[in-house]
């Protein structure tokens, strides 16, 4: 029987453990914090739980435009509807613990041994877990990553924070300064603004989320400004210091911004130090990420890696797939190498932004030839009924064959709507096939089939 030891219990680790156990391997999972790892306990699950609360609050604030008024009338501002932050955070942490327990029970039910300890490689086939030494035929490293710390802006957990500190706050921040306007910064900035905090978003680039679809980022920034957020573009933070009752953020150009709290969202660093990786022959890149191929192999024989510690694409879904692929390959099963072009991703802002496949940037750069159509959400009947005015559906296809290459959805529940486009990309469907698929009327998903119909008309004016 093949012995597999997995270091790390996040999505890359526990999904690998489930597959390995189902294929008959003897599996041990070594996890220091608990089943689900940081993804479930401190990062993805808690943040999306809190964001769900903020979306409910924003819906309450938007309700008067649909003729629904709550106590106090229709003219109340964002801060008027009370948010019980201790209760919000209690629910966030309890839900995270419950999800961790569910994962632990599921993994244990498959016969996986779980060791609560820090694991490290002694050599490519030997793992040290606490006071135990375990010999393995295959080792999978799935240790995740940690929030990056900027010199001069070291978190104290009280006023200067990473997102892992947020759920211990007793009160809603009066004025939250979010440093970093990537995906994480955009998510938390929008959530806390909807919950009632004054928010300043400090972005070092010309626009928010510079690595995402430009049209989508433009829509979100307009929504944020309309809701009263202060978005500071081309503003790089040089330092963050505590004051008597808050923080002051000094920018590289000498300007300052003052608030009650500062949230650092400036990227992630891999949890790869002190694991004995390089001594075991595992190659790391200059940033400390484990280098892997498309079937999750490292440079050390018998050692695989999955998830954020590889830096391939920091998504839970990608980590899980990397873990599964590692097991399938190690155990000699049929396996398809990781295809990043088919990965769907979502930014859990309000509205959400979801994308899959090729990007507008690749098309504009001439890397890929594609026809493009973009439909504003405001023309969709269901969107009008629900008062959704911001967003769009964008679809890309090959000019001659009509094969769907990708798309972008900016809408409420875009994370659900993108599945239709994702299936089309994965299965190489054409816009004709997508257009001939029935969509419910009225529905937001109807705009996806409508976009496909626009693309299947060769004489139509197809524009952006």
How does this model look, in words?
With 464 residues, the chain is α/β, with parallel strands linked by helices. A 5-stranded parallel sheet has the order 3-2-1-7-18, covered by helices on one side. A 5-stranded parallel sheet has the order 9-16-10-11-12, with helices on one face. It has a 5-stranded antiparallel sheet with strand order 19-20-23-22-21. A hairpin with a 4-residue loop joins strand 19 and strand 20. Helix 1 packs parallel to helix 7, helix 3 crosses helix 4 and helix 3 packs across helix 5. It is globular and about 65 Å long. The N and C termini lie far apart (56 Å).
Point out poorly predicted stretches.
459-464
Instruction: Give the overall silhouette.
Output: globular
Q: Total number of helical segments? A: 12
Cα-atom radius of gyration = 23 Å
* Measured distance between first and last alpha carbons: 56 Å
Oligomer category: single chain
In this structure, how is the largest beta sheet organized? 5 strands, parallel
Strand content: 15-25%
GO molecular function: dihydrolipoyl dehydrogenase (NADH) activity
Domain Pyridine nucleotide-disulphide oxidoreductase dimerisation: 343-452
Protein name: Dihydrolipoamide dehydrogenase
Pfam families: Pyr_redox_2 (PF07992), Pyr_redox_dim (PF02852)
């Amino acid at each position: 029987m093949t012995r597999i030891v997995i270091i790390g219990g996040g999505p890359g680790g526990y999904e690998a453990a489930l597959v390995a156990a189902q294929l008959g391997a003897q599996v041990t999972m070594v996890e220091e914090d608990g089943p689900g790892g940081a993804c479930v306990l401190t990062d993805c699950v808690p943040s999306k739980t809190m964001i769900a609360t903020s979306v409910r609050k924003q819906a309450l604030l938007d309700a008067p435009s649909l003729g629904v008024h709550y106590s106090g009338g229709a003219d109340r501002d964002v801060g008027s509807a009370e948010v019980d932050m201790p209760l919000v955070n209690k629910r966030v942490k309890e839900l995270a613990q419950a999800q961790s327990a569910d994962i632990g029970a599921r993994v244990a039910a498959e016969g996986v041994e779980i060791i609560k300890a820090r694991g490290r490689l002694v050599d490519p086939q030997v793992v040290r877990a606490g006071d135990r030494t375990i010999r393995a035929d295959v080792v999978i490293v799935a240790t995740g990553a940690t929030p990056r710390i900027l010199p001069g802006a070291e978190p104290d957990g009280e006023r200067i924070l990473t997102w892992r500190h947020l759920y211990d706050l007793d009160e809603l921040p009066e004025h939250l300064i979010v440093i970093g306007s990537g995906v994480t910064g955009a998510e938390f900035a929008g959530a806390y603004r909807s919950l009632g905090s004054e928010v300043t978003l400090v972005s070092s680039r010309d626009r928010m989320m510079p690595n995402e679809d430009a049209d989508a980022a433009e829509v979100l920034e307009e929504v944020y400004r309309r809701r009263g957020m202060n978005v500071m573009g081309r503003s790089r933070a040089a330092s963050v210091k505590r004051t008597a009752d808050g923080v002051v953020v000094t920018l590289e150009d000498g300007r300052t911004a003052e608030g009650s709290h500062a949230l650092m969202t400036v990227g992630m660093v891999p949890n790869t130090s002190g694991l004995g990786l390089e001594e075991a022959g595992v190659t790391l890149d200059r940033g400390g990420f484990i280098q892997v191929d498309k079937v999750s192999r490292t440079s050390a024989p018998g050692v695989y890696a999955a998830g954020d510690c590889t830096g391939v694409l920091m998504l839970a879904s990608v980590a899980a797939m990397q873990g599964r692929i590692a097991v399938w390959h190690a155990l000699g099963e049929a396996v398809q190498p990781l295809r990043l072009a088919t990965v769907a991703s979502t930014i859990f802002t309000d509205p959400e932004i979801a994308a899959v496949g090729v990007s507008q940037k690749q098309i504009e750069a001439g890397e890929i030839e594609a026809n493009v159509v973009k439909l504003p959400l405001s023309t969709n009947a269901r969107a009008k009924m629900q008062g959704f005015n911001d967003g769009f559906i964008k679809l890309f296809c090959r000019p001659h064959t009509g094969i769907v290459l990708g798309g972008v959805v900016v809408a409420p529940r875009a994370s659900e709507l993108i599945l239709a486009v994702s299936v089309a990309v994965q299965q190489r469907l054409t816009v004709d096939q997508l257009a001939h698929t029935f969509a419910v009327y009225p529905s937001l998903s109807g705009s996806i089939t409508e976009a496909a119909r626009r693309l299947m008309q060769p004489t139509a004016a197809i524009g952006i």
